[in-house]
């Protein structure tokens, strides 16, 4: 199949060929004709499958007719993170090179002024994170009644980051006769419910079964000690054994991202860090340096790295096993893109066995062990304990998630997208673990503590 059979305009076809895209990817060949027809799309596809172009190309073709009016954008693309939003702008710049469309990027962490000016001049395409978009709306700078095409990208990420109430609100501000293109890598029940409320008679397009991992990625597990120093040494050994062109090293916590990056640098690895505490400017600069090859290793947290589009990542190293199995799919989806060979190694300690079996269940395959499997380390007891601990943790997580889902939509929206995610992570961190709460018996009166003045003999 070639691009010129899909119904795209000549201008778009010429930009596609200049971008070097020869054949449409499966999501593109299925979604583009449907989107050009004006129908709703429910696209189930991971990053790396070419899904961005599957909505950018038909949007460019459809927007060729008509003009933008001040403060009334004609299309809206919602992205969960600033980086992903900035990435979609790049795709517009490449593929819309022959169009005179105005694209406005509305993301937090940068000043409102430039964004206001763009809106005033009239934007054809708005690419935004939900929080900043609503901030502009509340300041009276934006009307969404002219939106003809509405794209919700990475819906499952939006769910993880707590953006669903915002998206429901934004959706209510757009006229119902719009076209909606809805993309998600996975389809948990909450996302299925949302899709059914947002979409009208959509064409469901699934390019791979949900949560399968791309075959071109070689995946391995490495059993390592859980002591941080030894774990870092094990990581360095695995990294040195590979022919790494560039790699992302994922950690679960921001703090560990920073520690790991410093340690890697100390040991001669060309590594920088990207996490939510860095300014937007710093993150963009680091990302650019990584793209240009000035940096070889990028230590990253999930939130910061979500949706990064770096076409040629040769390796992924999971320093920590991700807490949510879906994050594993997202992380390793950064390698093995567009048919290239990829490699993903995950460090596993005795406490991670439960999480690993959840991941293997999700990706529907047994991942090979690099080196000795845990059983040959004489660690059966620890592995068993790890399983039990893992089970307790996952029960705890499930109950937290249930509570979150059952909670009513927030009335007041916090200031920015990033802050919101950070806040919820902080609040989770501060609450004591359930086991600890359970072990503490209620204190009656003064408990065991008798103040000294009560021990003094009473005066007759
Ligand atoms: P995405 O899934 O949208 O993040 O795209 C992943 C990468 O594949 C991006 O770097 C795109 O530039 C690239 N890409 C998208 N479509 C094609 C195509 N038809 N042929 C080759 N590369 C593509």
Notes on the protein architecture:
The chain has helices at residues 10-19, 26-36, 51-63, 82-95, 112-121, 130-138, 155-160, 164-173, 189-198, 228-241, 254-266, 280-292, 302-305, 325-332, 353-363, 380-406, 417-430, 434-439, 452-455, and strands spanning 41-44, 75-78, 103-106, 125-128, 149-152, 179-184, 203-206, 217-223, 247-251, 271-274, 297-301, 315-318, 342-348, 368-369. The chain folds into 2 domains: 3-206, 3-Layer(aba) Sandwich (Rossmann fold); 217-378, 3-Layer(aba) Sandwich (Rossmann fold), CATH 3.40.50. The longest helix is centred in the last third of the chain and has 27 residues, at 380-406. Helix 3 (51-63) packs across helix 4 (82-95). It is globular and about 90 Å long. Residues 401-440 have low confidence and may be disordered. The strands form 2 sheets. It has a 7-stranded parallel sheet, sandwiched between helices. Strands 10-11-9-12-13-8-14 form a 7-stranded parallel sheet, sandwiched between helices. Helix 5 links the parallel strand 3 and strand 4. The N and C termini lie far apart (104 Å). It is built from 19 helices and 14 strands. It is of the alpha/beta class. Helices cover 45% and strands 14% of the residues. Adenosine monophosphate is lined by residues 21, 24-25, 28, 47-53, 309, 311, 337-338.
What can be said about this structure in brief?
The chain has helices at residues 10-19, 26-36, 51-63, 82-95, 112-121, 130-138, 155-160, 164-173, 189-198, 228-241, 254-266, 280-292, 302-305, 325-332, 353-363, 380-406, 417-430, 434-439, 452-455, and strands spanning 41-44, 75-78, 103-106, 125-128, 149-152, 179-184, 203-206, 217-223, 247-251, 271-274, 297-301, 315-318, 342-348, 368-369.
């Amino acid at each position: 199949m070639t691009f010129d059979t899909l119904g795209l305009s000549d201008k778009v076809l010429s930009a596609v060929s200049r971008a070097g895209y020869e054949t449409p990817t499966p999501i593109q060949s299925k979604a583009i004709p449907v989107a050009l027809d004006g129908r709703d799309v429910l696209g189930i596809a991971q990053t790396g499958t070419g899904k961005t172009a599957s909505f950018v190309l038909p949007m460019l073709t459809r927007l060729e007719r008509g003009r933008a009016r001040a403060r009334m954008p004609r299309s809206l693309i919602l992205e969960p993170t600033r980086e992903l939003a900035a990435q979609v702008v790049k795709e517009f710049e490449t593929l819309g090179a022959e169009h005179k469309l105005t694209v406005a990027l509305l993301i937090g962490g940068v000043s409102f002024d430039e964004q206001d000016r763009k809106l005033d001049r009239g934007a054809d395409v708005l690419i935004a994170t939900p929080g900043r978009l609503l901030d502009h709306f509340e300041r009276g700078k934006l009307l969404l009644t002219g939106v003809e095409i509405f794209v919700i990208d990475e819906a499952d990420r939006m769910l993880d980051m707590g953006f669903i109430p915002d998206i429901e609100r934004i959706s209510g501000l757009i006229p119902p006769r719009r076209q909606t293109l809805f993309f998600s890598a996975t389809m948990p029940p909450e996302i299925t419910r949302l899709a059914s409320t947002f979409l009208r008679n959509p064409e469901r397009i699934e390019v791979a079964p949900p949560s399968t991992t791309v075959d071109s990625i070689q995946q391995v597990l490495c059993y390592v000690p859980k002591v941080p120093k030894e774990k870092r040494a094990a990581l360095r050994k695995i990294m040195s054994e590979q022919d790494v062109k560039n790699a992302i090293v994922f950690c679960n916590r921001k703090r560990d991202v920073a520690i790991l990056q410093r340690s890697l640098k100390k040991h001669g690895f060309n590594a920088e860090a990207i996490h939510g505490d860095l300014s937007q400017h710093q993150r963009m600069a680091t990302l650019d340096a990584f793209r240009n090859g000035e940096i070889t290793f990028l230590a990253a947290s999930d939130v910061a790295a979500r949706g990064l589009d770096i076409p040629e990542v040769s390796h992924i190293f999971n320093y920590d096993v991700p807490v949510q199995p879906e994050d594993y799919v997202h992380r390793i989806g950064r390698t093995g893109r567009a048919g290239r060979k990829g490699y993903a190694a995950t460090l596993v300690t005795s406490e991670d066995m439960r999480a690993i079996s959840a991941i293997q269940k999700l990706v529907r395959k047994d991942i090979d062990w690099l080196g000795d499997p845990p059983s040959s380390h004489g660690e059966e007891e620890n592995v068993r304990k790890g399983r039990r601990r893992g089970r307790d943790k996952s029960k705890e997580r499930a109950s937290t998630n249930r509570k979150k889902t059952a909670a009513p939509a927030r009335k007041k929206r916090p200031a920015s997208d990033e802050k919101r995610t950070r806040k919820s992570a902080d609040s989770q961190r501060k609450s004591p673990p359930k086991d600890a709460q359970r072990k503490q018996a209620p204190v009656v009166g003064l408990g065991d503590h008798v103040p000294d003045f009560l021990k003094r003999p009473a005066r007759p």
